[in-house]
Amino acid sequence: MTLIKTFSAGDEIVGFYLLKSADVKQTNTTPPKDYFDFVFMDQSGEIGGKLWDVSAVDKETYFPMMLVKIQGLVQLYKEKPQLKIMRIRKAEDEDGVALADFIRSAPIQPVDLLYVIKQTISSIQDAEIKAIVEYIHARAEDKLMHYPAAKGIHHAYYAGLAYHIVRMLELGEFIIKQRPFLQPDLIRAGIILHDIAKTEEMNAELGVATDYSLTGRLLGHISIASNWIVEAAIQLGIGTSNLNIVALQHLILSHHNLGEWGSPVQPQLPEAVALHYIDQLDAKLQAVEDAIDITPESEEWTAPVRAVEYKQIYLMKRKENGG
Amino acid sequence: MTLIKTFSAGDEIVGFYLLKSADVKQTNTTPPKDYFDFVFMDQSGEIGGKLWDVSAVDKETYFPMMLVKIQGLVQLYKEKPQLKIMRIRKAEDEDGVALADFIRSAPIQPVDLLYVIKQTISSIQDAEIKAIVEYIHARAEDKLMHYPAAKGIHHAYYAGLAYHIVRMLELGEFIIKQRPFLQPDLIRAGIILHDIAKTEEMNAELGVATDYSLTGRLLGHISIASNWIVEAAIQLGIGTSNLNIVALQHLILSHHNLGEWGSPVQPQLPEAVALHYIDQLDAKLQAVEDAIDITPESEEWTAPVRAVEYKQIYLMKRKENGG
Amino acid sequence: MTLIKTFSAGDEIVGFYLLKSADVKQTNTTPPKDYFDFVFMDQSGEIGGKLWDVSAVDKETYFPMMLVKIQGLVQLYKEKPQLKIMRIRKAEDEDGVALADFIRSAPIQPVDLLYVIKQTISSIQDAEIKAIVEYIHARAEDKLMHYPAAKGIHHAYYAGLAYHIVRMLELGEFIIKQRPFLQPDLIRAGIILHDIAKTEEMNAELGVATDYSLTGRLLGHISIASNWIVEAAIQLGIGTSNLNIVALQHLILSHHNLGEWGSPVQPQLPEAVALHYIDQLDAKLQAVEDAIDITPESEEWTAPVRAVEYKQIYLMKRKENGG
Amino acid sequence: MTLIKTFSAGDEIVGFYLLKSADVKQTNTTPPKDYFDFVFMDQSGEIGGKLWDVSAVDKETYFPMMLVKIQGLVQLYKEKPQLKIMRIRKAEDEDGVALADFIRSAPIQPVDLLYVIKQTISSIQDAEIKAIVEYIHARAEDKLMHYPAAKGIHHAYYAGLAYHIVRMLELGEFIIKQRPFLQPDLIRAGIILHDIAKTEEMNAELGVATDYSLTGRLLGHISIASNWIVEAAIQLGIGTSNLNIVALQHLILSHHNLGEWGSPVQPQLPEAVALHYIDQLDAKLQAVEDAIDITPESEEWTAPVRAVEYKQIYLMKRKENGG
Amino acid sequence: MTLIKTFSAGDEIVGFYLLKSADVKQTNTTPPKDYFDFVFMDQSGEIGGKLWDVSAVDKETYFPMMLVKIQGLVQLYKEKPQLKIMRIRKAEDEDGVALADFIRSAPIQPVDLLYVIKQTISSIQDAEIKAIVEYIHARAEDKLMHYPAAKGIHHAYYAGLAYHIVRMLELGEFIIKQRPFLQPDLIRAGIILHDIAKTEEMNAELGVATDYSLTGRLLGHISIASNWIVEAAIQLGIGTSNLNIVALQHLILSHHNLGEWGSPVQPQLPEAVALHYIDQLDAKLQAVEDAIDITPESEEWTAPVRAVEYKQIYLMKRKENGG
Amino acid sequence: MTLIKTFSAGDEIVGFYLLKSADVKQTNTTPPKDYFDFVFMDQSGEIGGKLWDVSAVDKETYFPMMLVKIQGLVQLYKEKPQLKIMRIRKAEDEDGVALADFIRSAPIQPVDLLYVIKQTISSIQDAEIKAIVEYIHARAEDKLMHYPAAKGIHHAYYAGLAYHIVRMLELGEFIIKQRPFLQPDLIRAGIILHDIAKTEEMNAELGVATDYSLTGRLLGHISIASNWIVEAAIQLGIGTSNLNIVALQHLILSHHNLGEWGSPVQPQLPEAVALHYIDQLDAKLQAVEDAIDITPESEEWTAPVRAVEYKQIYLMKRKENGG
């Protein structure tokens, strides 16, 4: 199957792709006619497409998140490639294609990501902190198997949230060794919990966060995670004014660093300072790496990357002897 | 007793005052000598004072928050009045002076303020909301009898927090009638709870917030109040994802309106919008009124008022026929 | 007549509506054909509509602010409802429909709003202040009968400006009673005058501010109102350096509070502080209430509300026992 | 007479200087003794000085803005030179010294500055604009003879305001020739009027702005000048909605360019854009030039200059062939 | 030839124009048809145009920056004029039209601009500064003959950069005379060098900056010019820590004044302060003048001008006797 | 020797300390007497001290950066400990104390830090990049042996700059392994060069940056490092428009990320993004660690830490089982 990322104008394409969206629109003709405005995706990227002369049956057949087989022509529209669809049909069981093959995923299997997280929890030595983290992890575990880390800004793909956590844990373990004055338990717990309530803040399927939940909009993931810590403390019989509980809440509440970025308090524990900058380093570099991954080979610059103030990143060719 | 607010240069003063602070300092002479750098207060204001030639006994005698009788002379120092103390002694029981007479207080008795708050709680119709507010109010009730609303910016006096709540409730009841689309239960509950965790965020005695507690510094009063709602919900058997609970948390979390003012989410319920602006209107006007109250009669402008961007307020004389 | 707010996809509509705009556009066909791109409104909201196959006569027939009778079909276009017009004709006298029934209006009759304003003026006790307010009110009275308070951000409807003033006066009377240190004359005069020069800053008809006047753009309503006070003072033989005049100007000039919001000076009279926050409370709550009013019954969130930083407001259903 | 700017540590000074301030303070000794904390000035700069052992007669003898003859020793105190006064007496008539010789002044005589301004007014061709400018100039003329342009930020000396206007007029005449699309009348009128109400905003004597007037604080010089234009228009029988009047007001109101710098509207006439940048260029360069003038010869950097964000300016030595 | 600026709806146009862009697009019809979406320009402005029914030959014939002869009809589309093309052909040699006649240019010939710049260089008295400026000027001279000063914000036309330099030099010479404390060599050198590296930062042809170069994006014109000074110093055998070199670099680095405007250091030489404000005054006034030049006669307001915060400028009619 | 960090009020101290500053001041007595206002330091911290009754010989004896033996009494002054000096003498050779023992230093020997840096340079594979880094390193090597990384904000001690580089290199090596899409040569070169021109920007001795150099103030370390790259390229015969040169300059210029933090361009290479966040993570955590190191054992909070917005950091006690 040809990857969408490699399509170029003039190509005729035949293959299976995932329908990301399927809107019926109308031409400006008299009388106006219906046509389909599609977006197709695979694990390498996305492309728009149009199907003219849509029948009533068609309109009842094609819906988002459905696998289809198409025959189409790649054309340029406003300087961007777009498919003119000539034939389309739904994928059948006998076609042997699986939806999971068409979505963008973290480069490590979810089960392996979860294994790292669980191992890290088991390495926490303070019994209270470990119990709190276990309680909250158990609550979110199913969603961690597939949730993205954000709607778009970084790690926006299948298991992206768990991947972000695991990458931060790698960095966290390095920092713990480099700077022994930091408390390992707080670094580990802070990394695992910092974004975990995104599983309640957002609604997501197949690695795509479609929208925010009501609770997510009214409270935000930072306050939801803070709530979960209180709840865990009460259920586990730990007092809510216990310093471990306060410290865990502080790590979560302060991890965006500034009020204008959503943190009601600023970092005032060494581990809270560390957590913020570990999060930044991972999120920004991943956003850059992801942007590069979906940049067509022919381009020298990525599209503007939201995580770095919408700057474009230059793809300096690696030299023979340089790296 | 002459009120401090009325002292003017050249006056000789005899009377009882409250020692707000009492620092032993040293002159720059050779050899240096100890002297007392005092701040005296009464319900009308504060004034600095110096006692030269301090004995070892004196240093063991005078401490903050003690009532003393003094004889002194009002002098100008850096354009501000200051007392040169000639005689000083501790107040005795037989002097018949009470500490409570020397501190600044809300103009309504604490017991009456608490009565209004309790009556308002009893008027809440939704059983869940009422139960949550009762639970949290019970926890903070003792401190509401005397806590100020802030360290300095507004309502910084005995029972200032309860006074702020009651004034906001008056305004809230007006707004509820003026705009029937608002839900009275949320307005009332939001007003009572919005700053209630200041009783845990700050340490205070006699209406003066001396400093912030550890929990206060690491979490802030907004997140502490949010914690209390979760705790109340669990203890009362109400689910934490119950919409009433989420709405109450949203009111608290958003009442500072913007991230840079400490709110992790912005108002998205009509009652949350109302709560923020009711709070603003009351806090700003009270700060102005308080600044005017402690401005000496001879001045045309108040000192800079922190709550209104450190602007000074002009004391335009009320005309006979103007109000 | 079916209210526009209640239209849903698939409905066939027959009825009278007001043409808010009527643009002739061209299809992308060869040769291109003319069609009408309409916006219809009634007191409940607005909807776009298209009339295909437009004749030369049609083009000379339909213009904005005209009442028409239409037969049309509600379709979805870019997820929003839109009318496909099948028949259209101008309303005739014998149809018995009145333009005033199709525009959005303040919920209180203009004559009643003006009555409240005039009564308030007559309650001002200081003769100079009363004379200034009367002078300026007389100048703007005709426009106060119908002007909106803004182009879009709040009170953007027939007599919206007078409604905003009256609502603020209600709140002002409450505050005057709650805080006797405020001068009632200044509060009342400030409220009546604060936005009154919007009647010169904007051009408006039927409650819709279509654009800004030349003077409005070059000076702004704050400076125009300030000019009017000078002019009134001169015409009434009151010196322009009279403190009442300076105070009234200060109230107007400072009522946006900060330089970046358009105020050249910041509030430095107690009444100026009050005026700003009374204005805020009324404007923000009205913007929220108006946004709710035009939100279709089926929606849980309003459209983004510009007055509250483009946040959407959640329409939490009122409970049986809660409100 | 030795200029203050040239004093260096160890010098013994005898001469006449102007007392800028004369505060009686007390030593920290027991008992405390009175001493005088003086500031002396001449046209080259300022220096502090102390007179120990002050008699009761001394305290009734020395006051600000008095000329005195002193004998003193230059010492270093906190790295800055300061005078230890050994002898002091008031200047007598027979000493033949004049106060005007000791204050900092614009480098051009006030009478010559006013002449330029009046000549410029007479060159304005539009009769209405000329009449307005004449009216306002007449009102402020006496104060223009001596007022500074600001309390401290730039042109803070005798006739500094008139000097600022004249320098801007020179620049304005150049720009008028360089860019014929600008209307000379508006440029000339705008420059003359832009800061003219500082004569009412501030109280000043001998080129020193001591404080702001009540009207100055409540309205600011921009709004006062705007008032004067309205007043002039009415007195001269020109309608206030006359475009010339609106344009003149726009020039004044917008000359600070942005709301946060005090302008309620932003420049929207070409001449308003020009006026703002002519004002900036003159004010910033003058502030730099003034800072250099009072920098002792021995220094390589000026003190921080408020007008350029408190940056210090480097005094690069002029080369033989370079300047 | 009719100037584009004077086209009005209904006109039939025949003449030569320059094709600024020529995009092939498709109609929404079934099947879609290709059409040309053109932009035509001449020295007075630009206009869009559409050519329906495009042949395969057409698509290989018309490209940007080509001169064409057209016959077309001016129609209104979204309230703006647009050409419906009826006939089009390429211009031939025998048509006698030259590309240079169709582009917008500085009002002074490039050769004359360059002459002024060279004369100014020859007037620099310090040998080192002169040598540096000559070296860099020589490098950029060819591009100075035609480069614009910016992509769009100001002086965006043929030789706009040289024109900006020359205009600033005129102003600089005035300021040098007005304020003798400034070093003429630094003012002249600073003006000539301040934007000169835009010739490397941008790619431009025919006065239109099409995009930024790779070096331009990664370093910016300020740092490139700073590099050139280092390079010149080394090639000319002047030490890079020579104060003249440091001062020239400082002038370039600081000329945007603030970090958020791209300057890594703020002005700390008097000439650096002057350079920034001379640049501002020229750039802002030119942007206003240019916006006025392309505003159709019928309009009272320019389009929003980016250089003055997107404000529109009002075209107040010059009075007989006023300008 | 007792460490300064452990002094408490009432202690009598005898030992050797380093004089950080030694100012002669005068008492306010009549006549005023000279006294010494000292600051003493050792590797654990600093303390002020006063020597009363200073002789003429004393004034010629004690100067900053001299080792002295003192006998003194620890007293509290404004709630901070301060020494009252009873005896003082210069340290002699036979006292066997070395200045290096009294200054704060990086925890790793400078020679070892330099070794790591050189090893890293030798691991760079691209010959051009390696040559540039070697050239610049050679220039700064001597100063790298002892320079601090900043005047105060972070790594402000002996060899602090080299220590900062080495710590960042450790983190850089980790990131290179974790994210293979990054070019190791650019990461290594960027880290070594990013702050290296601080050795020219600041004047420092014994690990204390006393002030900024003239070049440092006029250009800043970012532009100086950029200059050095140009110079190295020219001296090494590498073209300045070579992509490696441009990339290295981009890394340096952009490493402060935003214009308001001093970067004239923003990161647009993946390695530039990485460099900024590696720098942040190291600088912030080191600032926190350093603040903790000098916090007396008795304190629960550090002093406000400038690098983290002047927040204080809480010293949560490490638990037995927690890390």
Automatic annotation (TrEMBL), chains A, B, C, D, E, F:
CDD domains: YhaM_OBF_like. Residues 157-293 form the HD/PDEase domain. It comes from the Bacteria. Its EC number is 3.1.-.-. This is 3'-5' exoribonuclease. It is an enzyme of class 3 (hydrolase). Signal peptide: none annotated. It holds the Pfam family HD. One of its GO terms (molecular function) is hydrolase activity. SUPFAM superfamilies: HD-domain/PDEase-like. Keywords: Hydrolase.
